[in-house]
Design goal:
226 residues; six-stranded mixed β-sheet; four-stranded antiparallel β-sheet; 35% helix
């Protein structure tokens, strides 16, 4: 999957004021790349990822998915792209508290109407891959933060996405666990050829990224790439 933005802009109204969270951003996401977007809180990182991940609509500008104008896609088509072609990892994990680790990973496959047997086989394999083969039937409250993030990553991979969008995936984690999560995302990028886009303030992510962007006051700038 290739994503391109042209003069992408998101403006919010706050009372009588307006805030430009993303300001005329021109950005390309190419296949099998590991991309880091670095910036402080409030710089526009999360807003940009929500736009690129088709979870929000821009105020101005365009988003192209494989050269197709996303503004012309129906809500149903946008949902299918998110479900089948994208995987999402969040700082706050967003796991359903009443479901086990296994059930949380099965959920996207259930939404995609995959057979229950296939769901179970895939979820078991993914949780083994992220090192949680012995925590299958634990609910989120019974897991550490690092384990919850591993479940979230396994869930993001459930429908074999072409791109993983991760918003501050190490923000709630200690240094050691952060390093493990970054290594896991990097391994997925290299082995599965899945594109990974990470919004972060974690310098350890920057160390492994193919391309590094900085964002400040909604303005995105390419800092380096290899």
């Amino acid at each position: 999957m290739e994503i391109k933005t042209v003069d992408l802009t998101k403006i919010y109204s706050v009372g009588s004021s307006t805030i430009t969270a993303v300001d005329k951003v021109n950005f390309e996401v190419n296949e099998a790349r590991f991309i880091a977007i670095v910036g402080p809180s409030g710089s526009g990182k999360s807003t940009l990822l929500n736009l690129v991940g088709l979870n929000d609509y821009p105020t101005l500008g365009k988003i192209f998915i494989d050269n197709a104008d996303a503004s012309l896609l129906s809500s149903s088509k946008r949902r299918k792209i998110r479900l089948f072609r994208m995987g999402f990892v969040f700082q706050t994990f967003n796991l359903l508290p009443t479901l086990t680790a296994l059930e949380n990973v099965e959920l996207p496959m259930s939404l995609a109407d995959k057979p229950p047997k296939k769901q179970r086989e895939k979820a078991l394999g993914l949780l083994e891959t992220v090192g949680l083969g012995k925590r299958l039937f634990h609910r989120p409250k019974e897991l550490s933060m690092g384990e919850m993030q591993r479940v979230a990553i396994a869930r993001a991979l459930a429908n074999n996405p072409e791109i993983i969008i991760a918003d501050e995936p190490t923000g709630e984690l200690d240094s050691k666990t952060s390093k493990e999560i970054i290594a896991l995302l990097f391994d997925i990028n290299r082995k599965e050829k899945a594109t990974v886009v990470v919004a972060t303030h974690d310098e350890k992510v920057v160390d492994v990224a193919d391309a590094i962007y900085s964002i400040q006051d909604g303005n995105l700038r390419l800092e380096s790439q290899r």
